[in-house]
Amino acid sequence: MAMVENSYSTRNWLITAVIFSALFLVIEVTDVKFLLADYIYRLEGFQWSLRDHFITKDILHNGVRELNFVAIALVLFLTIYHYSPFGRREKRRRYTLLLLSLLLSFGIVNYLKATLGMDCPWDLSLYGGAKPYVDFWSFRESSFAPGRCFPAGHSSIGFSWLALYFFWKNNRITLAKFALVSSIVVGFSLGLVQQLRGAHFFLDDITTAFICWSVSFFIHHFGKHHEANQR
């Protein structure tokens, strides 16, 4: 039964991966990703007027990021606690997998941001910046410092917590579904905040969502496979 469930879940992930890849190619090749950025830029008076606004920068960017650090620290504390004599042995694996999912999601997104070198909209001459647009498939201009704007880091604060869906999936299905919906809503909401600031294109957030979902999916199934082999 477990093997059938794993096969079904893997097939669903593969379907999601194919859909994401096709969507990414279409959006990137046709430059559809510029449509929303163009609209926001015009709406803000041909400038990124919300880039340094108190609400978008200090509260919804810096404040939410600090809150996320607290949440991760709490998961770390609970994981360590369940490895102590006072914790519950049966919860160790679940909290370890949750912590791994969170850290890997943030780690992979930030690694790609650092290595791919894509620019933010606010950096581009199209939107009042200094740099020419260089697409995903081209080499970077050596005269410009590489950007750190793809995929989206801030929306990963929401999407990484998709791991809670798998954390509660087998014993608290209502909470699991709530975590699934909440993580998606928070992820895209934080992504929109950054788009309003000129920090990202909407494709960046879609990519981050797929990365975080994939990390949580594979960590969860690796954990289940490892647990089954130990029985």
Describe the structure.
- This is PAP2 family protein.
- The protein has 231 residues and is mainly α.
- It has a single domain, classed as Vanadium-containing Chloroperoxidase, domain 1 (Up-down Bundle), CATH 1.20.144.
- The chain has eight helices and no strands.
- The protein has helices spanning 2-30, 34-43, 54-81, 92-116, 156-159, 163-168, 173-197, 202-230.
- The model has no long low-confidence stretch (mean pLDDT 91).
Task: Kindly summarize this structure in a few lines.
The protein is an all-alpha fold. It is built from eight helices and no strands.
> Percent of residues in beta strands?
under 5%
Low-confidence stretches: none
How far do the termini sit from each other?
A: 16 Å
Number of strands: 0
Q: How confident overall, as mean pLDDT?
A: 91
Shape: globular
Remind me, CATH topology? Vanadium-containing Chloroperoxidase, domain 1
Helical content (DSSP H or I, runs of 4+) = 55-70%
Organism: Pseudidiomarina tainanensis
Protein name: PAP2 family protein
Using brief descriptors, characterize the structure shown.
231 residues; Vanadium-containing Chloroperoxidase, domain 1
Write the layout of secondary structure elements.
Layout: H1 2-30, H2 34-43, H3 54-81, H4 92-116, H5 156-159, H6 163-168, H7 173-197, H8 202-230
Helix pairs in contact: 1-8, 3-4, 3-7, 4-8, 7-8
